[in-house]
């Protein structure tokens, strides 16, 4: 699935710039709501952490 289907480019840029380290920081990013946090949050945080 292409990244733009899950998050907009602006949301992906914000994730890359802010490098959230927990759910609270991730959901504070525009474009990430409770549903996306639940569906993709653990994977996004793992990628940001470099694991």
From TrEMBL:
InterPro entries: HRDC-like_sf, HRDC_dom, HRDC_dom_sf
Pfam families, A to Z: HRDC (PF00570)
Top-rank lineage group of the source organism: Bacteria
UniProt GO molecular function: nucleic acid binding; nucleotide binding
Signal peptide residues on this chain, from the entry's feature table: none
Annotated HRDC domain residues: 1-51
Protein name according to UniProt: HRDC domain protein
Protein's organism: Mycobacterium intracellulare 1956
